[in-house]
Amino acid sequence: MNNVVNGTDRTTAANAGGTWRIFKGKANDGTESTTLYGEDRDADIAVTLLMQGSDLPRIVQWGRPMAHPEYLVNCNDAVRPQRVSGGLDDTDWPSIIPTQAEAWTGSDRLVLRRDGVELFCRFSTTDDPIAINGRRVAITAIDEVQGLALLWECEITQSGLLRQRARPSNGRSTDGSESDGSRAENELGTLSVDKIELAYPVPEEASEILSTTGYHLRERSPQRQPFNIGRVERLSMVGRPDFDASLLMTAGVPGFGFSHGEAYSAHVGWSGNSVLSAERTTYTQGLIGGAEQLVGGEMQLGQGESYTTPWVYGSYGEGLNEVASRFHGFVRSMHPLFAKKPRPVILNTWEAVYFDHSFDTLKALADKARDSGVWNSSITPAASGGRPRMPLANPGLMSQVTSVTRFGSPLWSMKSNANRLTVFASLPGTTRITLRCAGSASTVMYRWPLRLVPSMPIAPTPV
């Protein structure tokens, strides 16, 4: 083993506890290695990246902070897989974007084509590849032969999430400019990005997979299975996460639950078509991750253009509660007003009554909502005078507020006719709203709050 050659602590005031440290050393075979160690002790999370020579980095540790991260400079010798009989010269040891050039034998995770011909890439890091900005580290690499550039970013959030994304460029510079290389600038054709799947490694002990499935009225049903050799993937191909979409792909120790057992989860921060996967080859630890699911020809890059993947998030915890809390903290940090104002409870009557809009039933629901401390109620009236219809997807059929007055009666009352509904809310200082349907009242349904808060628009929202 080699001693630490150089240890640099990169900390900024904006980090608020997040730190990246760089250690340089040599492996026993003489290969130069760079180790990046990122941690946030407040969030009780750490990650280690290993760069061997000019290879793309590998995530070699993800979990709790380490007492002496300076010894991670030796992890190249400690965790690099040994050569096996009957195998390739290099054993599977996936980088952040594994390719056949590094002896990856699992499923394709990078699929690029130029003028219809698939490229077999070998990225090498640039001369000064590491850039640290607060909680985020960026690595730059190029493929001179194929005329490609790659920017990969990894960030530790304040809640303890990891997230990573990649940006390939059609050219040898991540900023769109060209440099002299083995191919002339005018030889670079259109680059088709068909797939870039990012992943996080999990230890061998994480041998059980948890995902969710379901259908309408039974969404997010858990399902477990062993993390065997091979690949498990959950596709979402309806343009958004469907009822059977899995929010997370989780691997953990057998029998992990909400409050016990180490668990590692991956999530794709994308609202369109996507894939979550868990994969293990014969000689590697498991990988969990995902990607935007692109179709052939969807992402075409001209000279100097680039494509940025969605963020792929990773969450680690002792049990699913800690895993979930990191996501909750991150979302709340994106919307700071969530924690600075009251969180109103909304009652939606849709599943309670559907189209049976009986005054007595709605009044009883409103009374119970009031007694339970509900701030807002949402009513979906079938303003048809008897024969309800499903709503039409027509933005022209909008409701109009015909009168808005202050009303402070302690009583609930409700009046309705064929195409009008007047609601009186019970709480002092709330608002009376009279709504009239514009257009065919028999084919439009609307929701609106019984009680408006100052930040809420007066206009109702179509269902």
Automatic annotation (TrEMBL):
Pfam family name, one: Glyco_hydro_36N
GO biological process, one term: carbohydrate catabolic process
Residues spanning the membrane: none
Keyword vocabulary terms for this entry: Glycosidase, Hydrolase
Ranges of residues in domain Glycosyl hydrolase family 36 N-terminal: 56-301
InterPro entries: Aldolase_TIM, Alpga-gal_N_sf, GH, Glyco_hydro_36, Glyco_hydro_36_N
Catalysed reactions listed for this entry: Hydrolysis of terminal, non-reducing alpha-D-galactose residues in alpha-D-galactosides, including galactose oligosaccharides, galactomannans and galactolipids
Top enzyme class: hydrolase
GO molecular function: alpha-galactosidase activity
E.C. code: 3.2.1.22
Region (Disordered): 163-187
Gene3D superfamilies: Aldolase class I, alpha-galactosidase from lactobacil brevis
This protein's name: alpha-galactosidase
